[in-house]
Amino acid sequence: MAFDIEMIAARYSKMEAAIAQARKIVGRPLTLTEKILYNHLWDGNPSKSFGRGADYVDFAPDRVAMQDATAQMALLQFMQAGRKKVAVPSTVHCDHLITAKEESGKDLGIAVTENKEVYDFLSSVSNKYGIGFWKPGAGIIHQVVLENYAFPGGMMIGTDSHTVNAGGLGMVAIGVGGADACDVMAGLPWELKWPKAIGVKLTGKLNGWTSAKDVILKVAGILTVKGGTGAIVEYFGPGAEALSCTGKGTICNMGAEIGATTSTFGYDASMERYLRSTNRSDVADLANKYKAHLTADPEVYADPSKYFDQVIEIDLDTLEPYVNGPFTPDLATPISKMKEEAAKNGWPTKVEVGLIGSCTNSSYEDISRAASLAKQVSAKGLKTKAEFTITPGSELVRYTIERDGFIDTFHQIGAKVFSNACGPCIGMWSRVGADKKEKNTIVHSFNRNFQARQDGNPNTYAFVASPEITTALAIAGDLGFNPLTDTLTNEKGEKVKLDPPTGEELPNKGFAVEDAGYVAPAADGSGVQVIVDPSSTRLQLLAPFKAWEGTDLKGLKLLIKAKGKCTTDHISMAGPWLKFRGHLDNISNNLLIGATNFFNGKTNEVKNQITGNYEPVPQTQRAYKAQGIGSIVVGDENYGEGSSREHAAMEPRHLGVRAVLVKSFARIHETNLKKQGMLALTFANKDDYDKIQEDDLIDINGLTSFQEGKALTLVLNHKDGKKDEIQVNHTYNAQQIEWFKAGAALNLMKA
């Protein structure tokens, strides 16, 4: 029986009436996205039509999911909310703090010892407040959610940007910061600007070397890393129905890389098969009963341009495998063009490591197709040229692929099998030699490939591909190898060609597992004690941020003018810094250390306006804080792209940064800044970015009459005595302005 089946049944029981009322109000057929959103309104009663990209709306999500790195801060905030139990079903998943180095058993054992304090904290908080707890080694949050909690037509929020993975089972699942999760767990409404709608029509059927991963790699090339911002992407068409459920999950997962709020698919036979295979026939039976409401109205898909703001069409029959990168997940290159592009751009073509798995591509189908290629290594007399690693997404998948012989197959080609955790995908990879900073190439089936993300080496050229293509390129050891057309020379000197991969959508013998890793909370957690050692370097109870002083802000110093891509990895690095995710002051020592300073082209070196010297960013900001001087951060386009990590907003807030001014924001990061009482501002004229000088003192005027839709004015006081006055915009509504005035949204909740 599925988790929370009563909640799912209750949600479905409201669906028909809510959708009928919404259809009447909107006055036209509805997309699937609209059906789900209107069925999750906070007040439960569709009474008006909402403007896409315009109206802020309160929602009632069905559940909350948290991974261990972000759960620490989310639960530290929740502990201040005064509730005895979470208001909606919630879970914590221990997947981020396990370093991949040697092999799963050894790495997991080390992690359990090193992170005992954090795991004890998370398990005790979960036990106290009625939160389901998934132990270290149970698997990656998004894979575990897909296997256990996702359901068609549901709405979920999660403290990780790849929460969107659950769209593979027809959910609207959205990545958020911990403060948003805290609100929902405390029984408060969750606010989101009504999204725009992008439709992707899939025709044809995948064949040969092409996989579901190639769909999203192509879409990323079309929309870029910010083309989906503020929108939900809805996939449909005969090609969508032909995809496996986990293939759909892969596509939705990497929708985070185009900035989309989330992505989703209508309920179909593949979802039913997956639900039944993962022991949730009760959910499948319910979904079948409400099937008409779990996809768009027929008129929508018949004439999509009338109902979506943008429509993309992809023919799966002719789709070619893609390899995206380096350094950004939207630089899309068809496999047939990779050799040419690598030569033109000077990319290293020797593949040092191929890595498959992660939350994006660790399904049974993914692993079985990669294993079919690994079997050909010995059968065709080949030898794998690159290192090769596998990161299973869950213990359910790992146990099953071991039973079915796939792990033995991988071991035979010299592969390492890491723990069921994020590992190399998020920088938790102790890669031998990475400290030498040598120029090299790796290929992986993960979702992100930002500079230095996987191994800490800024000179590692990371490329994203499907598990199949990643495996083939690891066997060949050559980025320019095209398995569709090229041959390899085996150990006998013979020319051989790899056969296209084959695999099973779901295990023929069914899934199996001895211990999935789940720990249920106490029925009554009132007696559970949660203790945080005041001297801990890993955990720190939160103190409230100060309320706004009620005046305009004068004399702010420029901390940094960031140049080019500035993701949450640049603002608050992961990897070894993950161990401080529960200690705000300690993790603040990584503030913006990866951002490139516009004025000298260097990272972690900015001018300290007090001393006149160039110093590390955190050190400079701490000097300003010590003297009570506020500061401002200036950024480029799509600032805060990437992870949902709210530390990228909490760190500057903690150290005294008052405002972040950029050309444009990524959605989650802008919301996180607002939640923490920061000013998130955008240039009214993007060319004004060029007016910001290194020694500027900056005034922000108009705050005493801060209003929704009313621009603010910045005065740039230059060192030479001259001034520039520029206009800046914001997207704050009345409630969010109150967050700013109170010092943070959490301060209002406590009040």
From TrEMBL:
Residues 558-685 form the Aconitase A/isopropylmalate dehydratase small subunit swivel domain. Residues 35-477 form the Aconitase/3-isopropylmalate dehydratase large subunit alpha/beta/alpha domain. Its EC number is 4.2.1.3. It catalyses: citrate = D-threo-isocitrate. One of its GO terms (molecular function) is 4 iron, 4 sulfur cluster binding. Its cofactor is [4Fe-4S] cluster. This is Aconitate hydratase A. The lineage of its organism: Bacteria, Pseudomonadati, Spirochaetota, Spirochaetia, Leptospirales.
